[in-house]
Amino acid sequence: MKIMTKKTRGGFTLVEMLLYTVVLGLCLFSMSSFIDMINAAKVKNHITLSIERQGNVITEVIKTSLASASGINYPTSGTSGNSLSLSFADSAKNPTIFSLTNGTITIKEGSSAAVALNDPYITADSLYFENIGRSGTPGSVNTSFWLRTTEANRAEFSYERFFRLGTSRRF
Question: Relative to the CA of 118, which of 18, 34, 64, 71 has its CA 20 to 30 Å away?
Answer without folding.
Answer: 71
